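seq:
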Amino acid sequence: MKRRVSLKYFWAIALLLTVFPVHAQANRTQGDAGLNEGLSEPKSTSVSDEYTAFLKLLRSKDTAAQRKFLAQWSGIGQQDPEFYVCYANYYLNLANKEVIQMSTNPPQNGKESYSIQDSVGNTVGYMYSAPSMDEELSAKSRYWLNQGIARFPRRLDLLFGKVHLFGLMRQHDSFGTTILQAIEKSVDNDFQWQWSKGIELQDGKQFLFSTCQDYIAKLFYSDDSLGLIWIEPISLALLEIDPKNVPCISNLAVSNMMLKRWSEAIPYLEKAYALDSQDDIVLANLGYSHFQLQNKSQAQKYYKLLKKSKDAQNRELADEMLKLAKKLK
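struct:
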């Protein structure tokens, strides 16, 4: 389902998310944990020779050799957490396919496509490639992740690997509930987590919040509105841990803004503003919410504050929105 928003609203949306600027020390790519991006050449951490050998096979894309190697490894690899990571990645790569899709609408984000024309030259459709996940192979990837989690419960990369897998499959309920499980387990184990290759996370709490914020960003920018319903419970669960966390409070505001519930968004934004009056995202969203409610003076107040931003794009946004707010009655 596609959401239609005006250019001005989209510009404001671009400022909506606050993502922690620093991640924990473990090497990863924005929350796509445990699968694909979690695999890298071992550095200072001790890992098995089998793990290193599998990485080479994975890069070779020789799936027959990978399957044979994993079968041999299974006899001795049950006590190696990377064994489960590798098996999950093997099935994930098999499950991830490209299919040809036809639609009356062009693909998003300027993706290359072929137009389909009728007999008089009018464009009646588009044909393009689209990612698709094989359910049976995805289930096998999930099986190995579950096996690894059961045997090595402190390995957060395996748990977030499941989140990544559910995201690829667009299974929003499983995506959201697995994040909530990670938050609950974090409280239970006092944020004492390990990451890929057994790295001990030095600040498990920051890492959890940072990764969850990455996942929330994916829900915001998804073209499926069903994902939006998980932003609130995830943010509320994080706020139980840190009630003054401005990004999480902003998430609650923006989830209301996405549904054009401007009056419901403002109390959350005011709370975030009271905690951090210099946050450009909060200022932009306060200004925009009041603008939508025709609250001229309040909209001008927050956009004037945004004009003091150190970011040139934010100052430009403030200037344009002040011109529009001036026209309000």
